[in-house]
Specification:
Elements (H helix, E strand, L loop, with lengths): L2 E9 L2 E10 L4 E6 L8 H11 L3 E11 L5 E5 L1 H18 L7 H5 L5 E5 L8 H67 L6 H15 L2 H19 L5 H22 L2 H21 L4
Parallel strand pairs: 3-4
Antiparallel strand pairs: 1-2, 2-4, 5-6
Amino acid sequence: MTGFGSAEDRVLRGRLRIEIRTVNHRYFNPQLKLPADLAGVEIEMRERLRQLLERGHVAVTARWVDLPGPEREVTIDLSRARQVVAAAQQLKKKLKLKGTVDLAFVARQPDVLTSTNGASEQPVQWSDVQPIVERAAKDVVAMREREGQALATELNGRLDALEAAARIVEEQAPARLTAEHERLKRAVAELTAQTTVDEQRLALEIALLADRVDITEELVRFRAHVAAARAALRSEQAVGKQLGFLAQELLREVNTMGSKANDARITQTVIAMKGDLEKFREQLENLE
């Protein structure tokens, strides 16, 4: 399912932005582009995204909006400062100069005040990054949920069409069986011509034929699968894989009905059902 989310916040002494994009995919397929200093949190990030986004191609991009710079420490060299003051006073005395040796003068002298890097930069921890990932993923999930609701409406419409077609097949089935009976009787009469027909044997053959072409069990299983698919669409859980399995079972029952039909009208209805099922399965690629 498609979705987009982004978030940014302070991390250590910098500012980090994370963007998450998802598109359709049968499985969870993450692709992370992280700065080198975030390599240590990649495993935790992948696992958390797997929990939040069970299916889809998930592209994650993280970048520093403001790079974290090391703290600067100012050190004082008192020995050097004393040397500067002593030297300045001696110079004043020998040259008979006016003025005073003040703080500004001493501080400007080399090596009295020195700016240096502080302690080494701390590595980025998962706890530093997780809140940003969670907020970005929340936006993705909300967008995917809106798309999921629209898909559920579409899929329920396909199920409505399949159920309506199944009712047509069920209504046409008795007439088809009667026609098969008549056809069999005519065929037997033509083969036997003037020979007397064993009515008991004929009745047995007709019963066997009825059993071979009966589609009652297929219709019962078909309706059960449709009901299961509707229940899955009402669920709050990820149901893409479950619906994929049910779509396969629905197709199996439709194919069996078609092979048993031996009737032009039922065959046409079965072809239409296969078309609806194909569209149903295509939409499942977009569903988590």
